[in-house]
Amino acid sequence: MKNTSMILKSPLRILHVLSQRPDSTGSGIYIQAMLREASKNGHTNYLVAGIQSDREAQVDFINDDQCRFVKFKNADIAYPIVGMSDVMPYDSTRFCNLSQDDLDQYEAAFSHHIKAAVDTFQPDIIHSHHLWIVTSLVRRLFPRIPLVTTCHGSDLRQFQNCPHLQQRVRDGCRDIDEVMALSQSQKRAIERLYDMVPDRVHVVGVGYNDSIFVQPVKASFGPVQLVYAGKLSRAKGVPWMLRALSSIEAPDWHLHLVGGGSGEEKAECLNLADRLGHRLTVHGAVSQQRLAEIMKRSHVFVLPSFYEGLPLVVLEALATGCRIVATELPGIIEILGDMRNDVIDLVTLPRLRDVDKPIKEDLNRFERDLKESLQRQMMAVENQPTIDLSGIAERMSAFSWTGIFKKVQSIYYTATANR
User: Fold this and answer.
1) Does the residue 383 lie in any domain?
2) Whether residue 157 is found in the same domain as residue 247
3) Which terminus of the chain is more exposed, N or C, with fewer CB under 10 A?
4) Residue 271 CA to chain centroid, in angstroms?
């Protein structure tokens, strides 16, 4: 039997595995936070991730010789990178469109690089991201190495939208040592969908960088500044947000549209955005530092999404003193909890099919409710540009990455002690 007290004092060799880019989307921000916090706590990191062959990854807190990248698009894998969401902020492929040959190529490439990383690095533990194909693959390849996995929500959506892949995923994922969920509602979904033992699923949450997302004094003159940050897609509710804003004449406002996308949905969003004229600034994809600067200048943050896990961006916006207009999703409710007050408006969702596709008959009502919430918070800005966060400061501190990593590290030690 292992000596638990010795394990608790020992730094770990952690192999981090992500199937997509480590510098884009919420999971990329999450994994970079894990690299940073693990290093601060004396652990040694190694990273395997997916990238597009024509664009290098921008990864902080780890050296190049501690990384291996599976390269998509005419490289290790012929086709563009496969996204955990069906619309990614870069050129991507959908899991639902992969043939059997495509899947075999995908698994073979990740197998090669993960095996090489394990041979080189000899990890004490593997921390994978998403309860999906690569995590299942890792478990089958290395049944004796402790494996912990963070669920990000998009994996649950893929699991439900790709029933033909469910058994392939479940076979490996049900044997993960410990799973980290973002919320209580997500924990329940994991237990149900993956036939997972409840004691192995832990609610860890998500964090924000409290060194850059801080509250300034907001401008008390000029247009009300609004910000949306996320993918430019229908599942994020962007078209209905843009239509709702187009019908608001007063008070004066300006929207900062932050984020990337691809294909027809991005084109639809940008076409609607163009109609807003001088009331709009399109920023594209930006760094965390740049996002923090935009949020600090903004009064209202908008997230009209139809599906989220536990959206990190809501925490970032609230920390910078933005009022919140968001949809009434379980993950958002769990984040805000008893922080909900007159600076937060939650909009009732339309009925949905296939997890994140709204039913057409509900969309007029959804757009009308979204407009009312936006207008209410915009009017409130004129009376109180800078909101008072003192009442929720303690609760917000629990969502710092330092606080989140304490929970993650405890789970690392539980997984290694039980081996």
Assistant:
1) yes
2) no
3) N
4) 26
Q: Exposed, middle or buried by CB within 10 Å (0-12, 13-18, 19+), for 247?
A: exposed
CA 268/CA 232 separation, integer angstroms: 9
Q: What DSSP character marks residue 329? A: -
**Cβ–Cβ under 8 Å, residues 285 and 266:** no
259: left (phi over 0), alpha (psi -120 to 50) or beta: left
- Nearest CA-CA partner of 16 in 50, 40, 42: 50
Q: How many CB atoms lie within 10 A of CB 41?
A: 15
Specify the residue for token string 């709702």: 244
- The tens digit of pLDDT for each residue in 61-90 reads 899 999 999 999 999 999 999 988 776 767
pTM, two decimal places: 0.78
In this structure, the answer to whether residues 150 and 48 fall within a common structural domain is yes
Strands of the 13-18 sheet, one edge to the other = 67-72, 44-52, 13-18, 125-129, 147-150, 178-181, 201-203
Which residue range is the domain that position 74 belongs to?
A: 4-207+400-417
Residues 55, 76: Cα–Cα separation, whole Å: 14
